[in-house]
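Why should sequence recovery work at all? Because a backbone constrains its sequence more than one might expect. Tight turns favour small or flexible residues, buried strands favour hydrophobic ones, and helices have their own preferences. The token representation captures these environments compactly. In the example below, the structure is given first.
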């Protein structure tokens, strides 16, 4: 649901900065500058510009939900009824505000949304899917896939 006209023009240095920040968002400015091969002042200015442009959406901690007793994670695919697709943003906002929601993706294909959730246990997952999501008038179907484990990709841990 993003406007592609909002793209930011990047060069090789910006791309290197973005790659390093994605691997480790806590890297110091001096270390980041050294890794990319630019002056610290230039690095600071470019990172600020990348953040202001929206190219960097945020730098945050990746919290393990299990640390808070949320031991069961899932991806829930949601398909809306065709006649209710007129207000996708409103439904996306609803999903984002659910306490169990970690991420919401608006997707192409036979589903409309993919929602990453974390809850206490199977009973809480059943309640979320059966008593919260499936009862919404705009929801045509859900499909829940439990997450057993996930890989972090290139990011440092």
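From this structural description, the recovered sequence reads:
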């Amino acid at each position: 649901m993003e406007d592609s006209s909002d793209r930011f023009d990047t060069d090789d240095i910006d791309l290197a900065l973005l790659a390093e920040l994605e691997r480790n968002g806590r890297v110091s400015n001096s270390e980041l500058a050294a890794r990319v091969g630019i002056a610290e002042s230039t690095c600071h200015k470019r990172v600020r510009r990348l953040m202001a442009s929206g190219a960097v959406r945020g730098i945050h901690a990746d919290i393990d939900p299990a640390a808070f007793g949320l031991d069961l994670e899932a991806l829930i695919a949601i398909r809306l009824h065709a006649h209710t697709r007129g207000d996708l943003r409103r439904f996306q906002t609803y999903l984002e505000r659910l306490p169990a929601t970690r991420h919401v993706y608006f997707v192409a294909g036979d589903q409309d949304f993919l929602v990453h959730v974390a809850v206490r246990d199977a009973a809480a997952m059943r309640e979320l899917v059966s008593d919260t999501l499936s009862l919404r008038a705009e929801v045509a179907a859900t499909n829940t896939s439990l997450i057993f484990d996930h890989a972090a990709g290139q990011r440092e841990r």
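A few observations help interpret the result. Strands lie at 72-80, 101-106, 113-119, 139-147.
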